[in-house]
Amino acid sequence: MLKTSLKQQWPPKYDLQYQPDVNEKYWYKDIETASKEDLDELILFKVKNVMKYAYEHSGFYQRKWSKVGLHPNDINSLKDFEQVPITTKAEVREDLEEYAPFGSNVCIPYSDVHRIHGTSGTTGKPTVFSFGKEDWERIAHQHARIMWSFGMRPSDLMFIASPLSLYIGSWGALIGAERLGAKTFPFGAGQAGQTEKAVSWLKEVKPTVFYGTPSYALYLAEKAVELGVDPKEFGFRILFFSGEPGAGVPSTKKKIEDLFGGICIDSGTMAEATPWMSNTECEHRTGVHLWQDVVYTEVVDQHSKARVPYGQEGVPVYTPLERTSQPVIRYWSGDLTTWTDEPCQCGRVYPRLPKGIYGRIDDMVTVRGVNVYASLIENVVRRIEGLGEEFVMVVTREKIMDEVTVQCETVGSRDENELRQQISKELKRETGVTFVVELLPLGTLERTQFKAKRVIDKRNFKE
Ligand code: 8LE
């Protein structure tokens, strides 16, 4: 049975000094190994409270729900919750335009705002988020708890290798590590010459945990080798990632573990759904666990928006359960995944995404009726001997058919014809589609210190 106190208090007040013993596997054993019924009861308690709170404090949700005649009192089960309308990024953007600059979903007075963050705004106006101090502390607390599950402990030193900017990824990792009692080395990424500096600092300081994007870890390894340093010399025991697919792609995971010699952990939902670590692998690395009492994640059909059964593919929809400054309820991710409730060796009860998040609906390319994601190509490219880590898919339209050229780089002295044939064959086996393969000299494709762009779309839709 769960402690009743957990179901009596919302927003939850955590003991911010609490730490399990370092040999403890779980942070909150009673929740993480609860029965499904107990866990669902706790989730429902939080769902009802966050909805009631949003209804009372958020102009955005008051208007959105009144339009469809929804009142939080109508939600008496997790099944009822499936009927609550989805919230999209487009709606949030419109609200930010209309109620500039912070939108009508901020539920605390301006004087209580502690941090302002945002999305990069590469496609349109940036999305701004406000966090109150109590939310910020709860995010740190939950992140620490989740980081505990993949083996991070107070004796660790975490190297943060993603931009310390508006991007919430780096800050979420920083405050989680601090709450856990670990040391942090917020190095950042993205400046010219920073990767070379990272190599020399890493050799000196020897942090035990890496945080960044998978593309950047591979670039860092490439740079290290170029400078005559074996990435294993850094001595990372854990490499922890969010921001893009990769850490959940089997051949990339293996490559990262082989190159650095530590374990590779996949994590990450979206900035809007912070605490974004609510999708994170445990030390067994069987796919991200959905920490349902932190953020309630549902996987729904991309067209009907109805919940899909375990074992099937769909789009994750997120409801952070403890946010009071800017709650989001059933937030549409636009990503694709498959979920399962098969148990993991770690004993946690949460459902899992065994293949992580493997694509975005809008980055999906349909080639002769088959849906192809960059992560499928990645899984092939990263396991073939004689290829570098970088690749892109260039999409063109020949009459009415989409063509995809996979560009990758060669390393070593393999015969190019033989290599091209092997790539084609393995791509065909992985995806069922024949691709044009173009081999380029090492160093031709763009490198990134953040999230890689893997699809270049040259289709002209105006024709
Ligand atoms: C596959 C989660 C965070 C803070 O690191 C982040 O990148 O949030 P952001 O900038 O709002 O981007 C969210 C999008 O990045 C997701 O919708 C998904 O498309 C992608 N993404 C993030 N983490 C992963 C991921 N895709 N695997 C991941 N682990």
How does this structure look, described?
With 463 residues, this protein is α/β, with parallel strands linked by helices. The protein folds into 2 domains: 1-357, ANL, N-terminal domain (Rossmann fold), CATH 3.40.50; 364-457, ANL, C-terminal domain (GMP Synthetase, Chain A, domain 3). The protein has helices spanning 29-32, 36-57, 59-67, 78-81, 89-98, 133-149, 168-180, 194-205, 214-226, 250-260, 374-381, 416-431; strands spanning 113-118, 128-132, 157-160, 183-186, 209-212, 238-241, 263-266, 279-280, 288-290, 295-300, 313-320, 331-332, 335-338, 352-353, 357-360, 365-367, 370-372, 387-398, 401-410, 436-441, 455-457. Helix 8 packs across helix 9 (214-226), helix 9 (214-226) runs parallel beside helix 10 (250-260) and helix 11 (374-381) crosses helix 12. The mean pLDDT is 94. It binds ligand 8LE. Ligand 8LE binds at residues 119, 168-169, 242-245, 248, 266-271, 276, 333, 335, 356-357, 360.
